[in-house]
Amino acid sequence: MAVAEPWSPVDLPNVVMLDGPAQPYRGNVHTELKLVLTEEPYEITRREAVHVVPTGQLIVLHADEAHSGRPLATPSGRWRIICVPPAMVAEAAGGPGVRFDPPVVDDASAAKLFEAVFDLLEDDVPADERRQALVELVAALLPYADGARSGSAPVAIGRLREYLEQHRDRNVALDELAAVVGMSKYRMVRACTVQFGAAPHALHLQLRLDLARDLIRRGVPLADVAVATGFHDQPHLGRTFARAYGQTPAQYRAAWSGAGDTRKLAFGVSERP
C-alpha cells in the first residue's frame, strides 16, 4: 500500500495528522507529542526496551527521544497519528517537559477519546472548538505521564456538569470552565474523566446531542435545533448526530414519527393535534 501523506487541519497549521497504512521506521526524533492508534499490533523500541502494543491501545511518544517502530501483522493495517505541538502540550500540562514511560496507554477510553478528537479535527467546525478538544485529549492522558499524582476529584466537579447543561447552546472554553469549578485545566479534565467517563468537551457534546434528540422528538425544525444546541449550522449538527447515532437527524425524526404511542409517552412526548 502507498504511504499516506501527513496534513494539518484548517486553521491549526502546527498540528500534524496522518491516516493510512502503518509503516516501519527507525530512529525517529520529533519535537511534538506523537499520539498513534493502530488497527493491528505494533512494536515500539525506545532505549533498547521493546514494547508490544496490542490493537486498541494508544501509543504516546514524548518529544526529543529517539524511537523505532514496526507493524507486527501482514498486512500492517491502518494507523492514525496526531502530532501535538509543544505549546498545546504545555497548555494542557501547565508547563513543558511531559514524558511518558512506558509509551503505551492501556485504557480503552483513551483510545476512544483519541478517535473522537481525530474525527473532530477533520470536521468543518470552528478552530477554537477543535483546538480545545485536542488540549483536553492531552490533559486526559497526563495521569499516565511520568510523575503524575493521583487524587480524588473534588466535590466542585459536580458543578461542571451542571454548568455544561446550562450552556448547551454554545461551546464552552476550558478556561471558562476551569474558572467556574475553581481548578486547573489539567485537574479539571482528569476529574471530569474519572467522574463521568469523558473529558469536558466529549461530555458537553453528549449533553448537546441529548438535547438535540429531545427537540427533534418534539418536532422543532432542524435549523432551530442546531442553534439551540450550539452547532455551527444544520449540516454540522447532521454530521455530528450521524457519527454518534448512525443516522441523520431527519432519519431519526422519521423513525420517531413511526414509533408507537407507548414509546413516545415514555419520553414525555405526545402527538400534537
UniProtKB/TrEMBL annotation:
InterPro entries referenced in this protein's UniProt entry, alphabetically: AraC-bd, AraC_XylS_family_regulators, Homeodomain-like_sf, HTH-like, HTH_AraC, HTH_AraC-typ_CS
Any Pfam family: HTH_18
Origin superkingdom: Bacteria
Domain HTH araC/xylS-type: 158-255
Key words of the record: Activator, DNA-binding, Transcription, Transcription regulation
SUPFAM superfamilies for this protein: Homeodomain-like (SSF46689), Regulatory protein AraC (SSF51215)
GO MF annotation, one: sequence-specific DNA binding
PANTHER family the UniProt entry points to: HTH-TYPE TRANSCRIPTIONAL ACTIVATOR RHAS-RELATED, TRANSCRIPTIONAL REGULATORY PROTEIN
Protein name: AraC family transcriptional regulator
Higher taxonomy: Bacteria, Bacillati, Actinomycetota, Actinomycetes, Jiangellales
